[in-house]
Amino acid sequence: MKVNADLLEKYHHNQCTLEERIVVEDWLLSNEVEELQFHTEKDKNLIKQSIWKEVTTATADETPTVKLKPASYYMWKGAVAATLFFTVLGSAFYYFKDNGEKTVEFVAFHNKSALKVNHISSSEYNLAIGPETSAEINEHSGVIDLTGSILISPKKDMELKFDGAENKIRLKKGQTYIILNSKSGNHGLIIVNEKNLINLPPVIQKKLIQEFDI
Amino acid sequence: MKKNIAKQLNIIFLLLGAMCFTACKNSSSLDQPQKYSLHLIDMDAREYIVTTDDLDAGLIKPEDITEALPDSVSRNIVVKDGFYYSLQRKSNILTKYALKTHRLTAVARLQLHDYGEENFIWLGKDTLLLSGLNHAYNKGKYYLINVGKMEILAQGLLPIEKPEGKFVSASIGFVEKRKDTLFVGYTFHPPMRDGNYTTSDTMYISRISYPEMKLIGVQKETRSTYPAGINTVQHNEFTDEHGDFYFMSCPGIAMGNRPDLPTAIFRIKANNTITDPHYFFNLSSSVIRNHAYGLWYVGQGKAIIRSERKDLYKGLSDHYSTPHFEFYLLDIANQKVIKKLDLPLDKGTRKDCILVNGDAVYIAVNSTTEGNYIWKYNLKTDELTKGLQLGGVSAFIVRLDQLSN
């Protein structure tokens, strides 16, 4: 059995058979996933430990329902069939950790493609990751280190703290925000409501319109 | 996400359709247009259009009068003779709106194709020339439209140079018509990589025969770059009483991002076909010592520019929200800065916020300390007074237009 987006969605909706669930969880925890992006071996171990902790709690319960908070991991690369032939252009990796109300839903993602946008959907937000974009969340500080461009539509009000910003950024449910950051470039961190796209320099606007098809 | 967008677009189309249907059925009940139109934005990015006959006094709270505009309508709108013309980027539909019980109501629509707007110019009472680019931003396109009937009179490719070599996209900054010639000013951009956006060091001005739309000649101008800008958002060009055409280069970070080059005003004299080699009003090296965006002719040989204060903002991220804009009065022909107007610092990167009515120059200013006001500068007496206040949810006054005479 091969893990694919459909199966992951089933898993997300708690509709997997026991066999399917084992396959998905094996896959999620497998070391053989090539595309996982970690900056350091230490990060990788931290995440691994955290996932194992979750899994242990869940399995120790011995109840048929999955205790894990719903998580989803899927991406689709646009409607163009040709993209199927691309090698995996980007990768995303999720883990979740239960700490009351707040759920940190991702650790790192990296879209290596120079052209394609990756789309990710979770219980908290829809996310489109621009080309040549990477982000990493520091598990302890919650600070997001972003390089590139993302489009995020929160499903509930949320606060994010970005590396390079003094204050937390409050994002409102139902709105779509464009977040850009560049370390080497000349604009720094920019957070703008999609409706205010027009406030950005026209050259940046045009790039975002093309990139995200907005 | 794509599905959601498609769904939202469907809803927008349905709403637009419904609005149009009810409007067409009942267009006799449109509001009698007032003299002035103001376009406002609140802190949650909602936009409002309010109108008034009096900019000299009073208080308007947009939320008391109208409701927020639909997301499909933004401030890049053309206002004339009681109507508003807005191009919806995604659908390429140009919609004509009027106000009905203070709400923007669609009265007619026109489908355009593969068109992104850059510039507009009125060639007659009802004749609108739209100049822009295809969606790949590398080919010039135009639509000549009769807005009375909302029909296309002519359309096609605008014969301007194409981006070549390291350049992949263009920006059209101005279109000026003189008898049977159009002057089109533009420049090129390399692809934006790793967060770097920038502009060629050269401006191009193509002369095109009208109405044949055939290329006559091209001038290269290298004294600065990024000519004028998208004039549905802000004007950076004008023609004076003598027929002399002036435009400003905008190489600052908010536009061209070639801050090494100067913000400067150029002139094409009425009897000439190229930029005046003896005229170069360098604002960045004047007492202003900054880049500027926004140039308006106020009459009597004077113009006003809206210049940034690079010592007050950190970068693009706070360029819009930090109050740092100043207004300077210029003697345009003599290339002299007359003075800085004694106004509070304004915020908002690009705004079309100046309107002239005889000796009165109305200037919309959003001050964090003094509030949002329409200020009145009297050209004769040199007096500056506070007029209409925009209160309630108003955060930015991004347009100030003459809606009717």
A few lines on this structure:
With 214 residues, chain A is of the alpha+beta class. Chain A is 24% helix and 28% strand.
Query: Would you count the extended β strands of chain B for me?
Result: 28
State the major sheet of chain A.
11 strands, mixed
Q: Roughly what percent helix of chain B?
A: under 10%
Distance between the termini of chain A: 37 Å
Shape assignment of chain B: globular
User: Quick one: how many beta strands of chain A?
Assistant: 13
Strand proportion of chain A, as a percent range, falls in 25-35%
Q: How helix-rich are the residues of chain A, as a percent range? A: 10-25%
Tally the helices of chain B: 3
The helix-strand sequence of chain A is HHHEEEEEEEEEEEEEH
Q: Assign the structural class of chain B, choosing from mainly alpha, mainly beta, alpha/beta, alpha+beta, or little secondary structure.
A: mainly beta
For the termini of chain B, the CA-CA separation is 45 Å
- Number of helices, where a helix is a run of at least 4 consecutive DSSP H or I residues of chain A: 4
What would you note in describing this structure?
The complex is a heterodimer of chains A (about 210) and B (about 400). Chain A is of the alpha+beta class and about 210 residues long. Chain A has a domain of about 150 residues. Chain A is built from four helices and 13 strands. About 25% of the residues of chain A have low confidence. In chain A, the strands form two sheets. In chain A, strands 1, 2, 5, 6, 7, 8, 9, 10, 11, 12 and 13 form an eleven-stranded mixed β-sheet that branches. Chain A has a two-stranded antiparallel sheet with strand order 3-4. By secondary structure, chain B is mainly β. In chain B, the strands form seven sheets. Chain B has a five-stranded mixed β-sheet with strand order 3-27-26-25-24. The longest helix of chain B is centred in the N-terminal third of the chain and has 24 residues. About 0% of the residues of chain B have low confidence. The chains are: A alpha+beta (about 210), B mainly beta (about 400). At the A-B interface, strand 9, strand 13 and helix 4 of A face helix 1 of B.
